[in-house]
Amino acid sequence: MPDTTTDVFDVVILGAGISGIGAAHYLRTEHPEKSFTILESRETIGGTWDLFRYPGIRSDSDLHTFGYEFKPWRDKQAIADAPRILDYLNEAVADDDLAGHIRFQRRAIAADWSTSEQLWSITVRHNDSDVVETVKTRWIFAGTGYYDYDEGFTPHFEGRERFTGQIIHPQHWPEDLDYRGKKVVVIGSGATAVTLVPSMAADAAHVTMLQRTPTYILPLPREDAIANTLKRTFGDKRGFAMARQKNILQQKALYKLCQRFPDQARKVIRSTNARLLPDAFDVDTHFNPPDNPWDQRLCVVPDGDLFRTLRHGQASIATGHIKTFTETGVELTDGTVLDADIIITATGLNLQLFGGMAISTDGEAVDLSKSVAYRGAMLSGVPNFLLAIGYTNSSWTLKIGLLCEYFCRILTHMDERGYTSVQPVPDPSMETLPLLNFGAGYVKRSLDSLPKQGTMAPWQMTMSVSADVKQLRKGEVDDRFLRYQRASVPAANAAR
């Protein structure tokens, strides 16, 4: 079918997940005069929280910080499961009357910036038909996260084809999977694995978490007693704000202590693990990561459910390298054989920025690996484009809220001075570093294809709320690195 061209918008938001819905709220409240639409490639909102359907899926951040600053989290659960998070996001959509702004089954596959028009032309494929349309917009807000929604990461396993049972990646969980009374091996040691093991153990015959390398794991109450007391005492709005600040400070303190005193932090985590594990449990083998705390994200287990499952004998941990899959399970290089009816490959994600959308300016492809992130919000060489990447050492949404505030401040500045575009321009002599200083495997595998960060402000990807409050909420919106432009011929009037 031939292309169709639709209206011109002030902002096109990519993704109706927690980032995109948050961006729409800020546009609604700070710039109600702006026209916008949300392009969502799936058939419903929620992003991560609707895509993943495996047992027990939940946030590993507390919802007082993972939730929006503008919308109190009222549920008693602080470490909340996906259905509660989806309810919260649906409420946010209803609160701001966003449903009519979301276009489902619309995947942005390419975007080209026209300097002469001062507009983006986005090529949009309708997933539910063969229609391709062009949507024009002044700004793109990329709330797509940073992983591939279509395919999770599974490494090569020797002998995989020999296994006669089921092999499942958590990103593609079958709704009809029956694991009652079956032996399950979960390969992995990250947040997904430590969620799956206790969630499946009650019904499975036995669940084994097979890890190549241990991860730091800490118990955390599912319900935050102090936060719930604050909300009862001071009301939802004020109590939520107080609980949010408390938890921001707690997260900051934990991260800084782990970074500054890694040996002491390791001892505290180890003693906590040993206290919760069965007597004579081999802590040195199974809970002794080679890196320092917070070199990778700490895994949280609500109410210590993983440890409880291990104590009750419903699950076990094996640490080692896989030699081969067999017809009936997995054989490790040390000769250990793990029987399995079902193998879950909780082996991570594939990184993918902007949903795989190709970006060009004036018809020339942009090599994202040569772009440099500015304030963690924009990219050099890419005008009128904001990327939403949250914190890796804290709650994702804390960063997203600050990015949205900064975006709205940029829009105000441009409106006041008649600018039509802006892009950051780095000093070509500045050294660059990988975009994310984070040890997760899925990050390391993709660093070469990602944009870079600089070695000095404002070109660094900060992972600090207080630093970002200074640079995003209070920092300048017009400095020597930003190049603003006025169109010589006004772009088409925006749709209202």
Automatic annotation (TrEMBL):
GO terms for molecular function: flavin adenine dinucleotide binding; N,N-dimethylaniline monooxygenase activity; NADP binding. Keywords: FAD, Flavoprotein, Monooxygenase, NADP, Oxidoreductase. Its cofactor is FAD. Belongs to the FAD-binding monooxygenase family. This is NAD(P)/FAD-dependent oxidoreductase. It comes from Gordonia asplenii. The lineage of its organism: Bacteria, Bacillati, Actinomycetota, Actinomycetes, Mycobacteriales.
